[in-house]
Amino acid sequence: MSDHILEVENLSVEFSTYGGNVKAVRGVSFNVNRGQTLAIVGESGCGKSVTVQAIMGIIPMPPGRITGGSAKLNGHELLGLSSKEANKFRGIQIGMIFQDPMTSLNPTMTIGDQIAETLMVHRGKSHSQALKQAVDLLEKTHIPEARKRVKQYPFEFSGGMLQRAMIAQSLACKPSILIADEPTTALDVTIQAQILELMAELQRTENMSIILITHDLAVVARMADEVAVMYAGQIVETGSVDDIFYESSHPYTLGLKSAMPSNTGSREKKLTPINGSPPDLFSPPQGCGYFTRCPYAMRLCDKKQPINFVVRGKQNHRSRCWLQHGDAPEVAAIHQNNSGQSRAD
To answer: Do residues 116 and 131 lie in contact, with contact meaning Cβ atoms separated by under 8 Å?
Structure first.
């Protein structure tokens, strides 16, 4: 059996708008290993959420459409399925936690009924059986007084409790892979830490794989085994979490690290923002999407799309950047940027 539970190859997604076709995802490929966490990181609008929504089959069509690629879960193709066929996987083998639980949960249904509905639809449980299991699931996510809470409505829960309820709902059918789309964005730092700790605990006990969508490198450092850095609809660098933090090779990854606050060194140290704006995905650039913002750009970068180079002989560490070509000049600043960088910063 393959170590990959999910294999995505050359996924492309477009949206039709009055202004033209937006090429939101452009040839994305990645694998998710069994029992591990893959973090997909990048700035807002880079295509992270659209990628996983396409895999789940929940992007609206129209205006969206999948124009190419493949996504296989345990060898079963997910793309192009009818809604009925997709429901054999959604919620059963793949669970999803959405970014804002307040808008993702039904305000007219109790928390218990919403969790129970998943079990009734996918597992054929009676309402009483499903409600009893909903209590167990809430207890598993450390919600106090679970028997009382199942009878309450979403407005009676705090933000952290709502996120726990969503996690309980997504775990109801014991999925083999959990997609968490920026699950801590709307939470304060203390609750964020609790939710991340809960996800890590449930991953160990349930032997789940996790796809974590985030723009927060601190969350990546804490949770991820593998990392995919995404920019302008493409994955520009992949590798282990140590590869990404200690041996970054793509200038965009370096830019993200430079913009990350640190708790070491001088207090006078300033954050270095990434200047410029992402490219227009109505008409994607002919060459590298990061060309206009890259401090190390070469003339070749403007004209020709870089291939996915192997970095330093590590097959699992790849970078879509011409600086990795054997004939490219060595950039001392890249090595300087990597030196002294700590995941604990």
So the answer is: yes
Q: Are strands 209-214 and 177-181 parallel, antiparallel or unpaired?
A: parallel
pLDDT category of residue 219 using cuts at 50, 70 and 90: confident
Phi, psi of 244 (to 5 degrees): -70, -35
- Residue holding tokens 């954050």? 271
Residue with tokens 């001088």: 266
CB 182 within 8 A of CB 39: no
Provide the pLDDT for residue 167.
87
**Stretch (H or E) spanning 228:** strand 226-231
In which band, very low, low, confident or very high, does the pLDDT at 309 lie, cut at 50, 70 and 90? very high
In whole angstroms, give the CA distance from residue 149 to residue 160.
14
Contact 311, 239 (CB under 8 A): yes
User: pLDDT tens, 118-144?
Assistant: 889 888 889 999 999 999 999 988 888
Fold of 1-93+176-345: Rossmann fold (3.40.50)
Domain ranges in the chain are: 1-93+176-345, 101-174
Query: What is the pTM for the complete model shown?
Result: 0.88
**Token pair in block for residue 323:** 């600086």
In 214-228, which positions are buried (b, 16+ CB within 10 angstroms) versus exposed (e)? bbbbbbbbbbbbbbb
